[in-house]
Amino acid sequence: MPSNEGFDRKTFENVFPKTCTVCGKVYSTCDEFLSKTSSLDRGDLSQGPKNSVLAYRNCDCGSTLTIKLEDLRDYSPEGIKRREEFRKRLKQVKETEGLDDQEAVAKVKKEMGF
Ligand SMILES: [Zn+2]
Fold first, then answer.
1. What is the C-alpha to C-alpha distance for residues 38 and 102, in angstroms, rounded to an integer?
2. Which of 12, 41, 95, 107 is least buried, going by the fewest C-beta atoms within 10 A?
3. 7 C-alpha vs ligand 1 centroid, how far in Å?
4. Taking the domains of the chain in order of start, what are their residue ranges?
């Protein structure tokens, strides 16, 4: 799944198959959904209710489809602190080592034992 910060998210089991209500196209799996839709200019993800994240993708027909993902982030004080450290370290790694987002996330995740 696309991720802005490198933290885990998973799809709710009942999300797929997902049908486009406009053109009737059916996406049977998450992989298929992601490979056959395109991302939006303004970004794919937004915070949903409780522990959920909403992902937006454009269908071939041009309509926007939304799927709800389970947000596996830890909202305890320790979890929040850990995310702050993660972000700080991520910025550092990108600035000092010139890594791109994906490389930097992988490196910091490894360092912090994710
Ligand atoms: Zn469609």
1. 19
2. 41
3. 29
4. 9-71, 77-112
Rounded CA separation 18/29 (Å): 8
pLDDT digits (tens, 9 = 90+) for 35-73: 899 988 766 777 777 777 888 899 999 999 988 877 777
Structure tokens at 14: 């009942």
DSSP 8-state class, residue 114: -
Give me the phi and psi of 58, to 5 degrees please: -95, 130
pTM of the model: 0.52
C-beta separation of 2 from 39 below 8 A: yes
Task: Give the pLDDT mean for 88-107.
Answer: 92
Ligand 1 centroid, distance to 26 Cα (angstroms): 9
Residue 89, Cβ density class (10 Å: 0-12 exposed, 13-18 middle, ≥19 buried): middle
Query: What is the C-alpha separation between 57 and 45, in angstroms, rounded?
Result: 9
Distance of CA 16 to the CA centre of its chain: 17
97 C-alpha to center of ligand 1: Å?
42
